[in-house]
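Field log, afternoon session.

UNIT: design team B
ACTIVITY: writing a sequence onto a fixed backbone
BACKBONE:
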């Protein structure tokens, strides 16, 4: 299944979710290269994502949190299409209101929605990858070594975890558009896994617990899509973690019934290919 064929969110619902997470306290303005304010990056990323969904091209760098010439061109086209005054160098309340009307169905889009384009760059703070993603995860933490690992860990776990990080994890990050913090990987000695879940893929080095505590619903769903597309086959849905592994194709939840605003059963059908 291709990324943009996954219809758990309709584009309008996606747009609605994106709008609800926006907090536009003042008009955003285009900046020159090298002068993109850190504190605006999240908001600019959200607007770039919305413009992308609405069918506008925000440039080859995609969603990067930088309100530069490409984003300004997209904003300008958007304003022209919907009869808003001003050029693309500013994005303010009238533009946001138009997007809200599109999300609610009050006005119809002038061009077809395009769905979610994969984004690039690290637009938001908080989530970091372990070590150097560009060069084989150098300096990775103890989560990925046999030091302190459970005695129940399988002999090939160290090799498996490297394969998991270099393969599906790396692909997932590329599809998702930014790095995702890993909370746990190889099962550690003395943890409850040894008694509670001795069959866990964490003993095989094929499982990662992804930290999603700072993610909104749209990001949670998009991460599931990216993880599935990247080749993960096992999914555990929690409030603050998403467990992914390359073991048997299955899913479970950690005492939640919805994940990212979607019923876990529905997501389970998706990740197991029944949707
Ligand atoms: Zn796990």
């Amino acid at each position: 299944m291709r990324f943009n064929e996954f219809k758990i969110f309709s584009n309008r619902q996606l747009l609605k979710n994106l709008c609800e997470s926006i907090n536009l306290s003042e008009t955003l303005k285009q900046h020159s290269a090298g002068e993109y304010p850190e504190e605006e990056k999240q908001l600019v990323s959200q607007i770039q994502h919305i413009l992308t969904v609405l069918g506008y091209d925000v440039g080859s760098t995609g969603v990067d949190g930088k309100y530069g010439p490409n984003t300004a061109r997209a904003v300008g086209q958007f304003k022209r299409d919907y009869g808003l005054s001003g050029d693309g160098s500013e994005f303010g309340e009238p533009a946001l209101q138009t997007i809200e009307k599109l999300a609610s169905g009050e006005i119809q889009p002038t061009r077809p929605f395009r769905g979610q384009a994969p984004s690039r760059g690290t637009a938001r703070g908080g989530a970091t990858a372990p070590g150097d993603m560009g060069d084989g995860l150098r300096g990775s933490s103890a989560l990925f070594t046999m030091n302190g690992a459970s005695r129940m860990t399988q002999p090939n776990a160290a090799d498996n975890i490297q394969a998991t990080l270099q393969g599906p994890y790396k692909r997932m990050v590329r599809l998702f558009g930014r790095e995702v913090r890993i909370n746990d990987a190889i099962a550690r000695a003395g943890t409850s896994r040894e008694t509670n879940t001795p069959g866990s893929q964490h003993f095989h080095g094929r499982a990662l617990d992804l930290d999603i505590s700072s993610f909104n619903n749209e990001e949670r769903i998009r991460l599931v899509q990216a993880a599935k597309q990247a080749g993960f086959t096992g999914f555990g849905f929690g409030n603050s973690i998403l467990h992914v592994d390359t073991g048997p194709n299955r899913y479970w939840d950690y005492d939640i019934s919805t994940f990212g605003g979607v019923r876990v059963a529905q997501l389970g059908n998706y990740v197991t290919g029944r949707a």
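LOG NOTE: Residues 3-104 form a domain with the Muramoyl-pentapeptide Carboxypeptidase; domain 1 fold (CATH 1.10.101.10).
NEXT ACTIVITY: expression trials, pending approval
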